[in-house]
């Protein structure tokens, strides 16, 4: 039986959720991300805002220049995650395997359930209707013989669209004269390399396979296959245990010059990384520190470590890395753990940091948090878990930055 894959992509997901929950926003250029007076980017925006040239990942100040009359909101990630779980329940009802690649996007293998293209078409329409009826949201759905073709199909008729690409030849016919960026894995840098040798369209790739492979190596081989409609990738459900790394970072609204403050912030980042590791029962064998300086130059520094399971161990390794970098104004700081493997130890519940314990590491971390509380007037007791929320983390870090100045 030929493989049949559905790609579901929610329409302007974050913005659509906010419009659903506040109908007064309907028809207005809503932009979700940082606020105009802050550092940051656009997470997503509604289609009215896109008419002004605003798009995801755009610098928020550029978005404001293009659309000063827009409505700007910070994202409510917890709400979006809850809705994403509801979407997943719908998707899982019709697929033998679901590969979620974002909160609002997934590949579904419906080969067994659908049987043929007509069956897949029926499933796609049911998914669209259930999404609208149960969640009050719209999605665009593509049905195809491969993952790349399915994703391309879902983008053809946005928003609230549906499109089919039954065969590899149909796929090639559709994209043959489009820019090379239509091909999966061809980003801006790869595209510039292809442009430099006169290759701008999929047709150019097909005419110059040897040049593409010579220029890009293994990636070039992959690109030439995709340009011919060949994509044998299976729908693979994501497992947290397969992650290569776990990290958390924050961008400051004003550059930070004092590295003592950065060390304090590393405590909170280490707690967030530990929380995610414990939730998925993982442990790491290396710590990475990420910095972006005021001039936008970024660096990463890593250390191997035999056991990076606790926030304290992550923090200590990150501080060692921080102490060795050039002391310059910092725009962004992040910490991560890599070389992940399954964690067999009993899960540590973070609220235990404020209960009696015999663990030396627990006591040391408790002391660090107590120092933070005294230094910045924070109150972690009883609600430390809130720091794991991205919005709370950012607010806390900004509060610390402002208090540190005074």
What does this structure look like?
This protein is an alpha+beta fold and about 400 residues long. The protein folds into 3 domains: about 15-75, MutS, DNA mismatch repair protein, domain I (3-Layer(aba) Sandwich), CATH 3.40.1170; about 170-225, DNA polymerase, domain 1, CATH 1.10.150; about 240-405, Dna Ligase, domain 1 (2-Layer Sandwich). It has helices at about 15-20, 45-50, 60-65, 75-90, 110-115, 115-135, 145-155, 170-175, 190-195, 200-205, 210-215, 220-225, 260-280, 310-320, 360-375, 390-405, and strands spanning about 5-10, 30-35, 40-45, 70-75, 95-100, 105-110, 140-145, 160-165, 245-255, 280-295, 300-310, 330-340, 340. The strands form 3 sheets. A 5-stranded mixed beta sheet has the order 5-6-1-7-8. Strands 9, 10, 11, 12 and 13 form a 5-stranded antiparallel beta sheet that branches. The radius of gyration is 24 Å and the shape is globular. The model is unreliable at about 345-360 (pLDDT under 50).
Q: What's the total number of strands?
A: 13
**Portion of residues in helices?**
40-55%
Q: How would you name the CATH homologous superfamily of the largest domain?
A: DNA polymerase, Y-family, little finger domain
Query: What global shape is seen?
Result: globular
The main sheet orders its strands as 5-6-1-7-8
Percentage of residues in strands: 15-25%
Count the domains: 3
CATH architecture annotation of the largest domain:
2-Layer Sandwich
Order of helices and strands: EHEEHHEHEEHHEHEHHHHHEHEEHEEHH
Alpha plus pi helix count: 16
How far from one another are the termini?
69 Å
Would you identify the regions where 5 or more consecutive residues have pLDDT less than 50? 344-358
CATH fold annotation of the largest domain: Dna Ligase, domain 1
Compute the CA-based radius of gyration: 24 Å
What is the CATH class name of the largest domain? Alpha Beta
Main pleated sheet? 5 strands, mixed
